[in-house]
Amino acid sequence: MTDSPYLRIQVEAVTLGMFIQELCGSWVNHPFWRAHFLLEDPEDLRRLKESSVREVLIDPRRGLSPPVLKQSDSKPEAPSQPCPAAHRNTAASSATRRSLEQEIESARQLCSKSKKVVMAMFQDARLGRAVEVEGARAMVNEIAVSVERHPTALISLARLKTADEYTYLHSVAVCALMISLARQLNLDEGLVREAGLAGLLHDIGKMCVPMSILNKPGRLDDAEFACVREHPSRGSDILREGRQVGALVLDVCLHHHEKLDGSGYPHGLAGEQISLFARMGAVCDIYDAITSDRPYKPGWDPAESLQRMSRWCGDHLDESVFQAFIHCLGIYPIGALVRLQSDRLAVVVDQSTELLLPVVKVFYSTRTKAALPVELLDLSKLKGRERIVSRESPDRWGFQNLEAFWCELNRRRGSLFDR
Length: 419
Ligand SMILES: [Fe+2]
What we know:
- The chain is of the alpha+beta class.
- The protein has 3 domains: about 1-70, no CATH class; about 100-330, Hypothetical protein af1432 (Orthogonal Bundle); about 335-410, no CATH class.
- It has 15 helices and 9 strands.
- The strands form 2 sheets. A 5-stranded antiparallel beta sheet has the order 8-7-6-5-9, with no helix packed on it. A 4-stranded antiparallel beta sheet has the order 1-4-2-3, with no helix packed on it.
- The longest helix is centred in the N-terminal third of the chain and has 27 residues, at about 100-125.
- The relative contact order is 0.09.
């Protein structure tokens, strides 16, 4: 049982008079935005039930409770509506694969928890104290389980970070990416966890770089850039002194900025001098860095980022590691903007069993240049009828920030859910 005052119930059990605390799922999974409201309008109830939202949190202190909770009710009738999930034995459901919505909810909590662990470790490093790695190992295990349940939920979520939390959530994102990539490369589970730990710790040397340089909105001058370029060496020194990590983690920390053509740093290693794990670290590090908003530039769209990275293969990045990476994320990663054969724009919200046919959310007509009612399509089930014809740049359509656009779209519709 939980101490939370809220109840999680199925959408089918929602009635007028309930106070909706939260529509479960992230913005990519429902057409509404920030739901806290008393449900009074039958039209809103209809829209909620027709949406892709399957569960909501209600606050029984501010509105009606589901009938099953009315213990004092004199009528001994069995509830005609589904039992609230919060009151079920969850053992059976937890054993099954969760939906993306459910996974994103737990990934959100995991992200927040991981960020705190990374912040504490990095703070120790900044203050010159011994870094406690046991907490990081426990975090890697939790992240590994999340990635196993759903390979892209945590990765998609960790991509959406503010400039202030970049360094910490970047570590969490690279950890999840390294785990996913290591499994894609069929490495044994012990190495998978080591790769995850390497991802979590690879940038710990950034704590030796002044925050004013790390968060500088403009271009770095030569002295500042030289300072940043010291972070792999400083990080590996910190980890080596702590004596709590193995050679693999030290190698990734020291060499994740090396490039195949020898133009990287700190040692200018080339070709075979760069280990498999350092090559993996480079791919994961760059992907998360270029897809995230930074103080000096907004993040690129995930699919566009993969396309640009493909041009860096051979010179900077390892081609076969990069191909495995694409298989982890899908050719059209979650969050990518795509154009469909039917002249509609959609955002990729989940992968399917087929790399080229993800699950998308349609929201815009390229013919009328107007928003459309949001529609969820599993393209793997629509073969021959609908398909992706191109990846689209959000900038080209004026969607510099797709999440903000989504919010605006709901506001323009005058949704009561937007409160
Ligand atoms: Fe780095």
